[in-house]
Write a structure and sequence with these properties.
Elements (H helix, E strand, L loop, with lengths): L55 H5 L11 H5 L8 E9 L8 H6 L4 E8 L10 H10 L3 E7 L5 H15 L8 E4 L10 H17 L4 E6 H7 L2 H6 L1 E5 L14 E5 L16 E7 L1 H6 L47 E6 L8 H6 L4 E8 L10 H10 L3 E8 L4 H15 L8 E5 L9 H17 L4 E6 H7 L9 E5 L14 E8 L8 E6 L3 H8 L5
Parallel strand pairs: 1-2, 2-3, 3-4, 4-5, 5-6, 6-7, 9-10, 10-11, 11-12, 12-13, 13-14, 14-15
Antiparallel strand pairs: 1-8, 7-8, 9-16, 15-16
C-alpha cells in the first residue's frame, strides 16, 4: 500500500506496440549488454527553483517535462496539508563511479543520490563503495535512497535477495525509496508472470520490514514484462534516454533521463558516465514527514578543467563485477506432462488419467462467438479433472476475422470460465486455415484483441498454434506480451524466437481413461506456482 497518497494516471499518449526495441546505448552498469528503447542524446538540464507560494496547477507548467496530474484530493485532505509535488534533481551511483567528491556533487545543485547497496543474494555482494558513499552523501546534506540489482531466478531467490538487502541497509535512514533494479539480460526469456512474481516477492518482503519500496527498469521492459498490479502497489523509477518523456504506460515518480552527467552537469565524479534523474514528488516528506517548503536555488557550476583529486585518492579502473552466472531459462526443461481435450474425447475417466503420469490438462471451453458453442463437456471435464487432483487450464478455438469478432469471442470465453480456478494459462487457438484470408498484421491484431481483453479480466493468457504458423504468420512483437503454446509433432523440440511455455508434441497419444487418441504436451514453466504468486486465473 503506498503511503499517504496516490498519483493518478500519467499524461502520456504514446502507443506501445509491445516489442522490445533495442539494444541501444543505455549501458547497464552490471552488464556489457546495452538495453534501452531510445538512444542517448546530450541535453541541457533545465533546473528551476520551486516556489512554495504557487498553486500545484500553476507549478505543473514549470516541470521540465509534462509528466503528471497530481491527485488533487490528497492536497485538500485535512491530514495532508503539505503539497506533495516537488521537483528535485539527482544522481544514482555505484562502485563503478569510483571515488566521489560529495561536496563537489552537492555544489553542482544535486538534491539527492540513489546509492547501490549491492546485488545478488549474499551479503558478500555488498557494493564496495556503499558504506563510504552513504557516509559521504549524508555528510554534505544530500537526501539518499538506495537500490538493489537483482539476479533472482524465482520467488524464493527474490525473498533471499530482499533479506540480504535488508541486512545491509537496515541501520541507515533513507529519504528516498529502496528500489528493486530488475533489468539483467537473463530475464529476456522469463515470462511476464515470473518477473512480476519476483518483483512482488522482493518488494513485499522489504515493505513488511518497514521500507518504502519501488521498482526500477527501462521503459520497454516495464511495458512488456511487468503486470500493471505491480505499478499499483509500488513506486516506479523508469529509465529512458533521448526522449521528451518516457513512453511508459503507467504512473512513474522518478525518471532516469540521461547517463552523461560527469563533468557536463555534475562535478566531483571523475570516472565513468553518471546517471541523471528527475523526481516529481516530495519523497522526504512522504517517507519521513519532513516539510521542505523553502525554495532551493540550484547553481549551475561549470566543470573544472582539471579535477583536483588527492594523490592517495586518484581514481583507478573500477573493479569488474563477476557474479556467478545465474541460471537461465533459455535451455528449457520439462516441468510437467499433460494433455488437452475437448468434446471430441467424449466421457473421460479422470481418475485413470491421473494415474497415467499426467500432471495437467488443458480443457476446451468452446469455440466461435455464440453461447451455443460452449464445449458440451467443459464443466464435466473441469469438475472431474480437479477432483482427480490434476492442474487445469482452458482454451478457446477462434474463428475471428476481425478484432471486433475476437472481442466477442473473448467476452464469451470469459463468461464460460468465470468462477473457475486455473493453475495453467487460458489460451486462444487460431488455426492456420482460419487465417488463410488474413495478412500477418491482421492475424496479429485479431489475437492481440482477444488476448488483451482476457488479460484485462485478470487471466494469464497465451497463444496456441503450429510452429510454422506462429513463426511465419504473426508479428513477433506479440510473443513479448503473451504466453506461447507451440505444436510440433516431430521428435525435435521446436526452435522458436521466444520462450514458449508448452509444447504439444503429439496428436496421437494414448492415455488410460480416454478412448482413442489424445493430444500430449510438455510444460516448461512452473505455471501453478505463478498463478498463486501473482494471483491470476482465480487465485
Amino acid at each position: 500500500m503506498k503511503k499517504y497518497f496516490q498519483i493518478l494516471s500519467a499524461v502520456l499518449s504514446i502507443v506501445i506496440t509491445g516489442s522490445v526495441v533495442g539494444p541501444s546505448v543505455y549501458a547497464d552498469e552490471d552488464s556489457s549488454v546495452n538495453y534501452n528503447t531510445f538512444s542517448v542524446e546530450s541535453k541541457d538540464l533545465e533546473r528551476k527553483s520551486d516556489s512554495a507560494k504557487k498553486s500545484a496547477s500553476s507549478r505543473m507548467a514549470e516541470i521540465p517535462f509534462d509528466v503528471f496530474d497530481i491527485y488533487q484530493a490528497h492536497m485538500e485532505a485535512e491530514n495532508s496539508p503539505h503539497d506533495i509535488f516537488r521537483e528535485s534533481w539527482g544522481i544514482d551511483v555505484s562502485e563503478h563511479q569510483g571515488y566521489i567528491d560529495w561536496q563537489g556533487v552537492k555544489d553542482s545543485g544535486v538534491d539527492f543520490a540513489i546509492i547501490r547497496a549491492g546485488y545478488g543474494n549474499d551479503v558478500s555482494q555488498i557494493d564496495d563503495t556503499f558504506i563510504q558513499n552513504m557516509a559521504g552523501a549524508q555528510s554534505v546534506g544530500l537526501d539518499v535512497g538506495t537500490y538493489w540489482y537483482s539476479y533472482a531466478v524465482d520467488v524464493e531467490d527474490a525473498y533471499r535477495e530482499a533479506e540480504t538487502c535488508y541486512e545491509i541497509i537496515k541501520d541507515y535512514d533513507f529519504q528516498y525509496p529502496v528500489y528493486f533494479d530488475i533489468e539483467d539480460p537473463m530475464y529476456a526469456n522469463y515470462s511476464t508472470a515470473q518477473i512480476s512474481a519476483i518483483i512482488d516477492a522482493f518488494c513485499t518482503r522489504l515493505q513488511e520490514k518497514g521500507c518504502y519500496v519501488g521498482v526500477y527498469s527501462y521503459t520497454s521492459f516495464l511495458n512488456t514484462k511487468v503486470y500493471d498490479f505491480i505499478f499499483d502497489k509500488y513506486d516506479v523509477w523508469v529509465a529512458e534516454y533521448g526522449a521528451p518523456t518516457p513512453a511508459f504506460n503507467y504512473d512513474y515518480r522518478m525518471w532516469q533521463y540521461a547517463s552523461d552527467g560527469c563533468g557536463s552537469q555534475v562535478n566531483g565524479i571523475f570516472t565513468y558516465n553518471l546517471d541523471l534523474n528527475h523526481c516529481y514528488v516530495d519523497y522526504p516528506y512522504i517517507i519521513t514527514g519532513r516539510k521542505d517548503d523553502t525554495p532551493t536555488e540550484k547553481p549551475v557550476v561549470p566543470p573544472a578543467e582539471t579535477p583536483v583529486v588527492p594523490p592517495e585518492e586518484q581514481p583507478v579502473d573500477p573493479p569488474v563485477e563477476t557474479p556467478a552466472d545465474p541460471p537461465s531459462y533459455i535451455e528449457q526443461t520439462i516441468e510437467a506432462r499433460g494433455i488437452d481435450v475437448s468434446a471430441w474425447q467424449g466421457n473421460i475417466d479422470w481418475d485413470e488419467v491421473a494415474k497415467d503420469n499426467v500432471d495437467f490438462c488443458i480443457i476446451r471451453a468452446g469455440y466461435g462467438k455464440y453461447a451455443t458453442q460452449k464445449d458440451y463437456y467443459f464443466e464435466q471435464n473441469y469438475t472431474n479433472a480437479k477432483a482427480a487432483g490434476l492442474d487445469v487450464g482452458a482454451y478457446w478455438y477462434s474463428y475471428a476475422q476481425t478484432p471486433e469478432e475476437a472481442i466477442q469471442e473473448a467476452e464469451l470465453f470469459c463468461s464460460v470460465v468465470d468462477g473457475h480456478k486455473f493453475e495453467y494459462p487460458l489460451y486462444v487457438e487460431l488455426d492456420e486455415y482460419v487465417g488463410l484470408g488474413l495478412t500477418n498484421s491482421e492475424i496479429t491484431a485479431v489475437i492481440d484483441a482477444f488476448c488483451s481483453y482476457v488479460q484485462d479480466k485478470g487471466y494469464y493468457i497465451g497463444i496456441m498454434g503450429g510452429e510454422s504458423f506462429l513463426k511465419n504468420r504473426y508479428d513477433d512483437s506479440i510473443f513479448d506480451k503473451y504466453a506461447v503454446w507451440i505444436a510440433n509433432y516431430s521428435e525435435t523440440q521446436p526452435v522458436f524466437s521466444r520462450f514458449y511455455g508448452m509444447w504439444q508434441y503429439s496428436g496421437t497419444g494414448t492415455v488410460n481413461g480416454i478412448a482413442g487418441n489424445v493430444y500430449c504436451n510438455y510444460s516448461y514453466d512452473i505455471y501453478p506456482q505463478i498463478m498463486r504468486d501473482v494471483h491470476l486465473n482465480g487465485y
